[in-house]
């Protein structure tokens, strides 16, 4: 394994971690024994102890097994917003020896139908507000294998906080069993018998090319990240963790749910992003750790009177998914006295394979490979390995790499390459590493714009545009051009202080700051950029 990054390796951390010999579910059983009276989840004013969490997980596991007829390795879809029921159902599915299939609650019926049918899920636990989508999806599922959740069952009576309308809504009694019914049935959970190599979870990729593909993870690959995370980012037992990322995506799932449960920490859970509520929770609950994304940090730092909140309890903030603009990172450092710790991971790697060293972070950098991760750069066509500062495709061999795409042998075969006798996953991301072993993202392989045979990486141009004094956000895409093949188009959001930006002045500025062939030939000004639930810009929509 390449070791040039060991020069900046965090002190007192080993280079390698032993494989975890238990299942993900057993992380909860351990914390419930060690910290039964500690608060596991706090949701808009109401707390749930580890003892209560474990008890309800066992009851829902019993329901799934005895009533919904869920058996070993059956897939169960989880289709709801961030809520205590999401966490309970997640661990209940694992307790029942089944496999979690998380579905983004923003998915509509056609998207839901694809994931449900492709994964061959046997049951679905869902938020009551999504019942119409389930009905429209024609899932051909028995009534007893539907379980409806009402979020308001788990909120405090006097939360004294802004609670989203969808969370406050009372039950609508869809024609199927409800969460309360399942708990009242008081079924016993089956014997848990999962080993590290057994199936655990099938999250679906974002589907940038065609329909989303299921990424099959074992308990071993999921646990590799769960157990590495707290050591690297410094989450100690009993920490206070703010959860704002969607739990249906791997970063939120691993950092903001599975990591706190492993360490017996408290998850302060938000169903919807609200910067003021986040600031209030950080101040009141003395939050120590928060994993976010660029857009939420921009919102947070733009909050009126943000300086009035006591945010001094924060010990670490980080994120991934998109590079943090340097100006935003500097504002955060000035306000909080903290570096924004960027990381890099994919659905196929169950969140991070790279994180910046806490004591030596770099801006707009993917970080260095963490425990047992071997990352290389290859030339994407001829597949030869490249050296420092040479741009190519990022490939990785690591314990958290998935077992393959669900029931798609061809896609799995295409996704791996053998180097030095080891299988490396081809990420489809273009990047490079420097002499110190820090990795940097250039762009997605499929996003490349070809201008008269010259490669233009949109992310590189976007990074330059973010330094323009009038631009808050930018996305660069390619348009067809009869002469050059493709040409560059910039879609931007202006700063609040800026009212106008002329095309001529914009192109003139670009010409002074980048090579001629990279200069956008057209400018489009919008009030916002389209984003998915994970905060990534939906560049295909542009």
List descriptors.
Luciferase, domain 3, alpha/beta, GMP Synthetase, Chain A, domain 3, 542 residues, 24% strand, five-stranded antiparallel sheet, 28% helix
Topology:
Elements: H1 25-34, E1 39-43, E2 46-49, H2 50-66, E3 75-79, H3 84-95, E4 99-102, H4 109-119, E5 123-127, H5 131-137, E6 146-149, H6 165-168, H7 179-185, E7 199-201, E8 215-218, H8 219-233, E9 240-243, H9 250-262, E10 266-269, H10 275-285, E11 289-292, H11 294-301, E12 316-319, H12 326-336, E13 340-346, E14 351-355, E15 368-369, E16 374-378, E17 392-397, E18 404-405, H13 409-414, E19 416-419, E20 422-433, E21 439-444, E22 449-451, E23 454-456, H14 458-465, E24 471-481, E25 485-494, H15 503-513, E26 522-526
Parallel strand pairs: 1-10, 3-4, 3-5, 5-6, 9-10, 9-11, 11-12, 12-13, 25-26
Antiparallel strand pairs: 1-2, 7-8, 8-18, 13-14, 14-15, 16-17, 17-20, 19-20, 20-21, 22-23, 24-25
What does this structure look like?
- The protein is of the alpha/beta class and 542 residues long.
- Among the domains are: 373-443, Luciferase, Domain 3 (Luciferase, domain 3, Roll), CATH 2.30.38.10; 448-541, GMP Synthetase, Chain A, domain 3 (2-Layer Sandwich).
- It has 15 helices and 26 strands.
- The strands form six sheets. The chain has a nine-stranded mixed beta sheet, sandwiched between helices. Strands 16, 17, 19, 20 and 21 form a five-stranded antiparallel beta sheet that branches. Strands 4-3-5-6 form a four-stranded parallel beta sheet, with helices on both faces.
- Strand 24 and strand 25 (485-494) form a beta hairpin.
- Helix 2 (50-66) packs across helix 7 (179-185), helix 4 (109-119) packs across helix 5 and helix 11 (294-301) crosses helix 12.
- It is globular, with a radius of gyration of 23 Å.
- The mean pLDDT is 92.
